[in-house]
Amino acid sequence: MPLRDQVNKRPLISKAPYLYLMRHLFVLFLLGFSFRACAQTEYQDWGQAYGFKAGDKRYIYADTANIRASPNQFAEVQYRLPAGSEVSIISIGGAQIINGKNAPWCLVSYTANGTSQTGYLWSGLMAPRELKKDGVLFLYGMRFSSIEPSGPTLVDIKAMRGDSVIARCSFNVDVLQTAEGVHEAKLLSSKGLKGIDCILYFSYSGQACAVPTIEQYIAWDGQKFITLPQIYSEADAGAYTVEQKYTFPADKGGRPNEIRMREVIDQYGDDGDKVTSHRVKTRRYRWDAASHVLRKL
Known about the structure:
This protein has helices spanning 17-42, 46-50, 175-180; strands at 57-59, 64-68, 77-82, 86-98, 101-112, 115-122, 130-133, 136-143, 152-161, 164-174, 182-188, 198-208, 211-220, 225-227, 231-236, 240-247, 258-268, 275-288, 293-296. With 297 residues, the protein is mainly beta.
């Protein structure tokens, strides 16, 4: 959990405590409103965060994507594309917030009934990128909270073979990290886990003090996903650092059928330079190669 400095509370001193309190509550309300308004235009900007541009070929990650006659969510539906469909972006237009996600509309070309067509697609239904391994297409996208902008983001992942979704999984990340900083997705080897084809790796970094970098490893055995415990790193300059790191069987120092998670927490003194507390904790997990299950030791 994030480490926080304790703040000493001071009593309010005023000849008119009621007016004093109301004035400060009003200031806090304005600050909260400003923060939400700012956040809603920044960290939910799907188009800028994932670099959609004309000429790109993208895949639909949503179960169904409506192709519309004009760039509006209430425009006539021309065609419905299933997950895994490929589209080519012709041009990018204005953005629209739908279900808490601010994403631009794109004029795209697609294939319908064997012929090439064009229409408008809301880019929030497209995968930021795709991963492929042995004929399996891995697609992912994000679902923001439309009720609470600072709430969690659910990352959905689909494994597709041909036109069929053969497996699904999901995990949560903090919305504030998904666009303030950088995100990464890539395929790794099995890392020495027996019975595993590959490992999907995702990271979300806020690139700011006290905003963690979240890492999610998901093993794929050819039929199903096995989600490993999420890890993170966090730092507040001159105050503390937290670092969590996995060691897999194939890594240097790794052990057969075991995954180790090492956590290092350093706290700094008032000068912000000298380490006053250094703690190391190791968690061990046993990989069951027969059942493809990870168990904490």
